[in-house]
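request received
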Amino acid sequence: MNVHPISFPQKGVSGQTGSWRLERPVLNKDLCTSCLFCWVFCPEAVIDKASLAIDYTYCKGCGICAAECPTQAIVMEKEAASS
Amino acid sequence: MSERLLETGCHAAALAVRSARVDVVAAYPITPQSSVVETVAAMVEEGTLDCRFLPVEGEHSAMAACAGAIAAGARVFTATASQGLLYMHEVLHLVGGGRLPMVMANVNRAVFPPWALLVDHQDSLSQRDTAWLQMYVASVQEIYNAIIQGFWIAEAAQLPVMVNFDGFVLSHCASGIVVPDQEVIDAFLPPYQPLWRLDPAQPSSYANVTATEYYGKHRASIQRAQEEAKPLFAEAAALYRDHTGMWDGDLLELYRTEDAEVFVVAMGSMAAEAKLSADALRERGTKAGVIRIRVYRPFPAEALVEVLPEGAAAVVLERNYSFGMNSGILAVELKAALYGQKNIRVFDRVMGIGGEDLTWEYMARMVEDAVQGKEATSWQPA
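response:
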């Protein structure tokens, strides 16, 4: 009997949310101190803890990582109109 | 050995909580319910009930804590009344619509304004559409029996059960009751086996934002579950009788209805008193009977259609208003159930508001007035 409104987390459950993005976060590794603030604050968990690579398939471009970065190592760049 | 005790309705409710081996009680005190949770708290304190008691800061929090505890797999109880029940309203939808099985005792009390402490049924009838199963009981023994059966029904239906009993009339008046042996209740009501529980090892979220397609399906499943719950009341009562020898059950309680032409329809303790009204009416030449609606949600429409014969008169006596409908809530629902089914004359008398005393003589007179076509005087107290 499946009667309860339960949901389990899974990757891409709301589709490829990267298509929502107007601006993309770009990391400048020269300024990065690996403090991991971006990794902690990212609401979509699309930043890899080890490599700090951003998964643009699911990153919605909210800009929280750029706002929280203490060394301005992440900047938001406008997406190209065609992408 | 079962025990024979002299207990108030509130104490009987607390004894049922102990017999049902409830795991979690979250509650806030409110007249006339306070001694239910005070007694439960005392049992926990003295070590006669192995239960987590959460004294929260209000009824909204009480029901929210209950929701979490059921979702974690516990057997859960709370009690409230009147404004406390109204304050819970939002979370009642979560627990009902969320298919979280628990039992709540609601001690019926009038709602404000103006402030009132005594019984009517406005509080619980205002929660009609929250997907809770609702029972209205008529004796102290039935409070005990209905709470224990309520857990069986709730867990089978995966819906919460509200056991309603009249403030002061039942909550504070002591009656002789039988409390069966713990082993007897254990045999009737085994430990709760949840179908699913919140588990940190397998993270999930409950009642999250849902696409329309799935939302509609879930809401429809609640409606189906209400219909499917109807036979569970008689099933639970029959099983309970097998174990305890006591009968309290089914959707309706019938009194002298076999050959009746005038049917008194009522809920709660006034329906027990109405049996004396029916006796008196029969002595005066009116073939009267009583239909006590024990289970109000799901509404026993089919059972009512079956009991009422073609051409009969049904006089609804009820302690509530449906404001703007020039009627009580129960009469509206009875008419809806009968429409297109049978030709029954339905009369309505709103009475007993805010604890107005309902004697069998008064109710018999109101029934006579109704079937003689006299105007309802529901806005005039007895």
